[in-house]
Amino acid sequence: MKNTRRKTLKTLGVSGAALGILGASNWIAACSAPSKKTEETTEETKKVEASADLFFKISLAQWSLHRSFFGDAISSWDNFGKLWDESPDNVLLGELKPVDFPTIAKRDFGVEAVEYVNVFYFSKKNDKQFWYDMRKQCDEQGVKSLLIMCDREGNLGDTNEEARIQAVENHYAWVDAAQILGCHSIRVNAAGEGTAEEVKAAAIDGLSRLTDYAAQSGISVIVENHGGYSSNGQWLSSVIEGVGSDYCGTLPDFGNFCIDGWHGSCKEEYDKYQGVKELMPYAKGVSGKTHEFDAEGNEVNTDYFKMLQIVKDAGFKGYIDIEYEGAELSEPEGIKATKALLEKAGKAVS
Known about the structure:
The chain is of the alpha/beta class. The protein has a single domain (56-349), classed as Divalent-metal-dependent TIM barrel enzymes (TIM Barrel), CATH 3.20.20.150. Helices cover 45% and strands 13% of the residues. It has an 8-stranded parallel beta sheet with strand order 6-5-4-3-2-1-10-9. The chain has a two-stranded antiparallel ribbon with strand order 7-8. α11 links the parallel β5 and β6.
């Protein structure tokens, strides 16, 4: 695993104590220089102006730092599964701690909105005090919690009704955690085994049951294109239409349109631009997936200018997350490169 490098943002300025010991002539000269407060205000103004150039806001998906949280636990995924079965906390062997994620996002990357991944908090699933403490940290840091991405809780499109209902109920605690954090959604998967029509019917049922529960807390259930049938934009759109609730939508991911296989070994891939276009009418968030960059800082697998034009044309004005999943750059470098690309491409189409 590559080492991550974290930088603390520093603001330069003239202290009030220093001004107090200056002579009269020096005091007059010093008055012409910006104060610390003025410089801080200027930096905040620049950030606001930069954001104003974009039609969307930027968030950070926690998976972008998964190697830094998991550490040697992902030396092999077989080893990961063994450790997980013993205890979910056993896979948290990295130099970063999940509890610090909101602070890391703001301090190291200047991102003020975050998207959690539940696998980093499985032992805290039913610990409401933990989530209240996380909410306090976010409030102190000025960070907004957007959603919790949920995995390893069963298939909401399971064609076995008993297993499907159990999967639905497994997600309840994450809905409750999302409500405490002030999130708008939990992200789930519409997975299942069977024909496309069989899994579609099961997914509509499972999502409808979970949405009924989540809506009571004002939380939406959003589905990501995440392999299998769900990576077919037309199929997933028809599932969301079948649920027919304002509290059930999508999280279009720019890079997850492999129907058979995964990135790097995909046997069948759905047209990603068509897929995003089909999912955007239901989008409550967008995932800016990246893997590799060329010398100009562009993603080699995805035309971000084309993607963001599709997102803009859909009337979307919410958050697009940074979700770096590559290996050539370190995680901090990949996050910064993704952020820079979102800003560059976003300004070009805004």
